[in-house]
Amino acid sequence: MVLDRILDGKTLAQNLQDQLKAEIQALEPRAGRPPGLAVLMVGDNPASAAYVRGKERACAQVGIASFGEHFPGDTSQAELLEAIEALNQDHRVDGILVQLPLPSHLDATALLETITPAKDADGLHPVNLGKLLRGEPGLRSCTPAGVMRLLEAYQIHLAGRRVVVVGRSILVGKPLALMLLEAHSTVTIAHSRTPDLAEVTRSADILVAAAGQPGLIKADMVKPQAVVVDVGINRVPGGPTGSHLVGDVDFAAVYPVARGITPVPGGIGPMTVAMLLHNTVWSYRQQLGS
Ligand code: NAD
To answer: Quick one: which of 84, 131, 142, 239 has the most CB atoms within 10 Å?
Structure first.
């Protein structure tokens, strides 16, 4: 895609989904079944429910069968472990995803580790994170993979470039830094204990914000002509419906400074969903041996 200031994750994700749909149509006659994704949700967090609906809608669009299960908020760890074990054995299911965050009485790590690594659609199992660390093929975490795919689609050169990632979570910051290293970037991770964040971010040719802090990145923290990727999704008060979504970047102020910038919404969010579908089809292919 041609770089046009706005890095349009929404259109790119739609293109990727169209490709996946064609791929599934070509594979399904041989497989005798469509790919399957099971999204497990516990409780009634409205943001999680919206994400799960979005994922199931995207599955339907490309021809992935959904095996979603919605559990009440007081579901026990044992019940969930049993559900995951059953999905591990279910031959119609290629990907399993536990929607986070979970209610506080549940141990998310133990649940994620129960998912068989071959069906770990979110790429968060230690085996898959270990493969990423070693640079081996495997299922990659969806959000960082979405960032990488977007940079690749816009032909943002990464080798030797200075990339700063703000945020060090296991979901986004850490795996993304490893993927950027794999692409030969010079990577710096900044986080909440970084003393002078602006000094670090100003050194970036490519700046990725994944801190969960609305408007954290201001114009004077961005090197002129840098590429800015905003992973943050924060609901803040205001707008016609009483609240709206913003990223971690002060978009209006940074837009004139940057060479390219992802919007929120319409940037990394849809790319994350596209990579989830990509992972499910990847596992399906592994199952088929193709
Ligand atoms: P997290 O809370 O687990 O991690 C946030 C990280 O940011 C931490 O490592 C922390 O050290 C760092 N941080 C916090 N405040 C900071 C500050 N003031 N200065 C520098 N660093 C700071 O969050 P997460 O799960 O990694 O998510 C980060 C953001 O990305 C959130 O807004 C989340 O909603 C969003 N997100 C988006 C997608 C997507 O699909 N686009 C997917 C996952 C997460």
So the answer is: 142
Contact 99, 48 (CB under 8 A): yes
Tell me the CA–centroid distance for residue 231 and ligand 1, in Å: 8
43 ligand 1 Cβ < 6 A: no
What tens digit of pLDDT does each residue of 228-276 get?
Answer: 999 999 999 988 889 999 999 999 999 999 999 999 999 999 999 999 9
CA 31 – ligand 1 centroid, Å: 39
Please check whether residues 105 and 165 belong to one and the same domain. Answer: no
- Predicted model pTM: 0.97
pLDDT at 45: 92
Among protein residues, the one with the nearest Cα to ligand 1's atom 16 is 192
How do residues 44-58 score in pLDDT, each as one tens digit? 998 899 999 999 999
Per-residue pLDDT, 2: 76
Q: Which are the catalytic amino acids?
A: 55, 99, 122
Q: What CATH number is associated with residue 233?
A: 3.40.50.720
Number of domains in the chain: 2
> Tell me, what DSSP letter sits at residue 120?
B
Place of tokens 């040719």: 205
- What average pLDDT score do residues 64-89 get? 97
Mark whether 93 and 151 lie in a shared domain: no
